[in-house]
Amino acid sequence: MTETPVPASAPGPRLRVLAAMSGGVDSAVAAARAAEAGHEVTGVHLALSANPQSFRTGARGCCTVEDARDARRAADIIGIPFYVWDLAERFRRDVVEDFLAEYRAGRTPNPCLRCNEKIKFAALLDKALALGFDAVCTGHYASVVTGPGGRRELHRSADAAKDQSYVLGVLDDRQLAHALFPLGETRATKEEIRAEAERRGLAVARKPDSHDICFIADGDTQGFLARHLGASEGDIVDEDGRKVGSHQGAHGFTIGQRRGLRIGHPAPDGKPRYVLDISPVTNTVTVGPAEALGVTALTGTAPRWCGPAPAGPGRYTAQLRAHGGETPVTAELADDTLHVRFDAPVRGVAPGQAVVLYDGTRVVGSATIATTERAGAGVG
User: Fold this and answer.
1) What is the pTM of this model?
2) Domain boundaries, the chain
3) Which residue ranges make up the annotated binding site for ATP?
4) Which of 239, 249, 341, 374 has a beta carbon 3.0–4.6 Å from 288's, enabling a disulfide?
């Protein structure tokens, strides 16, 4: 008889839970739900900037003094202890500097995955366990369920529209064993979560969501990269190597980009051109037609598994962006490299991004895209 997975937060032992509270509505409601479930909850706000005044512009960014105060007020209403932990140096080293290094190398990173891997479920979790806590709770929309044999599994949120399991695909067995996601097991809309916050008396109920990259408060990623990596003039070339324009730094481009190319003259067929390749060694950006973007296969390095590593080739679905859809693939792990082949070509795939594999709603694991193979072309 097959065992049916059940939510890991189903009634069970009372846990000592450290709730990561960003100062937003999701993490506040998650902490309140954990406390309401009978757990012994302590709230903590992570100070991730040495100058926290600068990390928010309107609804962008996070980690300001205002956010810390909002988190403290929410903890007071919930009735739980609250602390602020300074992880700014760790965040700068593991997330911000990694982000810059990846762009410098011509890759397109996802800093939210790196933050989950290195900060929330490494630095924070390690400190929590050392202090005697059993689990870390966050406001992510994903589900941890107990599967056959008692193994904890990461699944998509019950509400697929808000699912954030992609950015959690870097969590391993040990981290999942100490993770709670109280929002992921219900189909509540964001408005219903806000209404719940209002019923609980939480002042953050109508606070705007933060978005984009938290440490780029104005949302100008290219400007941020230019300030930190500097300008370096290079060529924009077509697929035949002919120069069609120039740029001030290859780090300002991503694979699949169409806008902002500033190409001096149109393509012979008059159709738009897209970024096909970025070479940091020669500081060259290659552009071409949309049909040249179709990727048929990729390799991924530094794989991380939310359970046992897959044995032999298998059929899965893959997600390539935080807000992207799924696509059917065949994947196989060989010599610690993940080989993925798509049933049909997909666009917008860039080295540095994460590929996350799913078996139904279960997250199998993830890897960092190292190379891609295009239809009718070689590996890039």
Assistant:
1) 0.88
2) 6-206, 231-292, 294-374
3) 20-27, 46, 139
4) 239
